Request: fold
Amino acid sequence: MSQRTLVLLKPDAVRRGLIGEIIGRIESKAGWTIRALELRDLDRAALEQHYAEHVDKPFYPPLLEFMTSGPAVVMVVEGERVIEGMRTLAGPTDPIAATPGSIRGDFGTIVRENLIHASDSEESAARELKIFFPDFS
Reply:
């Protein structure tokens, strides 16, 4: 069953010149296709919607500051089990816990600046795609 998911390459991935490396890993997965891709400065209002579940957590203000600190790459990725697969490819948020071969395991440095976001469920993917790609069909 084909799925679509939102993937964000966060400002630290862009600053560190990892866009090509990460996109290459996504494209090398058989059956996964990047359907939309943009380099853009993320809108604070969109980020507030995206991270609404974290609004009362102490890391929320620094998270918004980080996510607006520079351009990010926003993507729609499509394919068989892509939601679960992208989460595995990204690796756990903590780069110490992330396995070698995952994006965070190979390139991660700190928890807060963790290179990539991938939707965690079909419901989250649908909600997040509407935030970042409202006209995408």
Remarks:
- The longest strand covers residues 72-80.
- Strands lie at 2-9, 33-40, 72-80, 116-118.
- DSSP finds seven helices and four strands in the chain.
